[in-house]
Write a structure and sequence with these properties.
Blueprint: H1 5-13, H2 19-23, H3 28-38, H4 41-54, H5 59-69, H6 79-92
Helix pairs in contact: 3-6, 4-6
Length: about 90
């Protein structure tokens, strides 16, 4: 099983059904940008490594992991797109 502490914190604590109240963003993409911008450099680096490792899995494995880990937060088939969007926000936040 993958070690995903930063991803778990991000999804469970911020990118959940209350993301708009938590971040003030109107969209999930906006919430992702707010979340990433508030991370320190070390945590951003850890999150990037976790996501990169997660994305090395096949699409089927990513969907399965999301189904098992985050059953109430996201549709499992949206997991890969979410992770790619977070990586994009990290790259923009340098």
């Amino acid at each position: 099983m993958l070690i995903t502490g930063e991803i778990d914190i991000m999804i469970g604590g911020t990118l959940n059904q209350d993301f708009d109240f938590i971040t003030g963003a109107d969209t999930m993409d906006g919430a992702i940008r707010v979340y990433v911008s508030e991370l320190n450099e070390k945590d951003r680096g850890t999150l990037k490594r976790e996501i990169t490792h997660f994305l090395s899995l096949s699409d089927e494995e990513i969907t399965k992991e999301f189904r098992e880990r985050y059953p109430n937060e996201f549709a499992p088939e949206d997991g890969k797109g979410l992770l790619e969007e977070v990586l994009k926000a990290i790259a923009e936040n340098k």
